[in-house]
Give the backbone structure.
Amino acid sequence: MKMLDRLRKLPPYVALSLYSLVLLVPLFWMVMASVKPRNELFGKPFNLPSVIDWGGYQRAVAGGLFHYMMNSVIVTVSAVVITLIVGGLAAYALARMQFIGRNVIYAIIIASYAIPMHGILVPLYDTLVFFKLTNTYLGMILPYVTFGLPFSVMILYAFLIDFPGEIVEAARIDGSSEIGILWRIVVPLSMPAIVSVAIFQGVAFWNEFLLALITISDDSLKTIPLGLVAFKGRYVTDWTAILASITITSLPILILFIIFQRQFIRSLGGYGK
């Protein structure tokens, strides 16, 4: 019986192992290619490097990679924090409070999730120009928050709608305010959902290119996706520097995911409610 049980469990493990391999092979190739000499990158793309060449990393750092990373950190952290605060308050009000038009407001928020950024890019740019927000951090942060709110509200609402109402009612009887309930009770117990939203939105903001491209032309304010364009010339592209830059800039998101993976998995599994 034990052998049969092990055989039944084998296919899922094999499938997950193959899926993990599919995900890890491109990452391994990226890291390996980033330390290859230039002549081997295209001549022997799938071979291990004959020598470790750190030139791509040196050129990436010399090209202002850390400055671009700092800009991305400022924009991403600011946008994620504002999105979580506004989206969390909206989701809590829609899920736990009774007022006229609640369902209509929620439907409008969810419907706005279907509006593609490309469809309103021209009026969005005109608005940013009108308010003199081009070439500013705020010109990127505010649109990121706007486009990130529908998804954030949807995820947090789905989590809070099943939140134990007895805990909230007990806190109200004890005289706690709504803000106190939200901060002392709801937020700590909703960390899996909050972390999931932060990771999803953080990755999206960190990698966003199109909006940053039309908003920022000042090199001192460029984020990582815009900064990588500097390594692509008209006739020559420094691919090893680009791969080295991607390797370095992938580390913060990877580290954050490793740190908060338990909360992330709990949220996807529906635990912690």
Observations:
- The radius of gyration is 23 Å.
- DSSP finds 14 helices and no strands in the chain.
- The mean pLDDT is 86.
